[in-house]
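Holo model, shikimate-3-phosphate. Inputs:
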Amino acid sequence: MKLKKKIVLIGMMGSGKSTIGVLLSKKMNIKFIDVDSKIEIIEKQKISQIFKLKGEKYFRAIEVKTILSLLDSREKEFVLSLGGGSFLDEKVRKNVKNNSISFWLNWKPSTIIKRIKKSSKRPLIQGLDDKEIEKMMLDRNKYYAKSNFKIDCENHKKNEIVDKIILILRKNEIKS
Ligand code: S3P
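Output:
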């Protein structure tokens, strides 16, 4: 398959962007880049430490800068998984729209809550109860819905989710 655009995965924390991204890139034989990991390499610090020591505002600025430079790069053949909060930024959304084909990995709130609640890796949800996480997710879904394609993941195995994405990419290639 000849890709004309970068592939971007979007969705809430715990939606499987990195796991699906790795599987998708392997199946397509292209590179995978995880924005959070990239930031951790640039900053030489874990995301949770960046939040703790430098604050969310600092993290968001680095996050936007990292995403925009990846999306602006000439290289086309890669799958990029975004951090769950980055798509709330208008510049990121515009750039994703112009330079990539984007997929929102959508799950029921209860599935996401179950997955992320016990994680200490996710500073943003520390101290939130289920209702508050659900509210955050529903608020964010309005932004995630601006991606090119919504992939309903509930009750699907990882490989089925990957195949759904590949099917859309194939159809898109035919159209383009
Ligand atoms: C965040 C999601 C995290 C990470 C940071 C903030 C968010 O990435 O970027 O903790 O605002 O949703 P994942 O979506 O990969 O967990």
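Residues 158-175 form the longest helix (18 residues). Residues 13, 17, 36, 47, 83-85, 122-124 surround shikimate-3-phosphate (CB under 6 Å).
Archived with the compound record.
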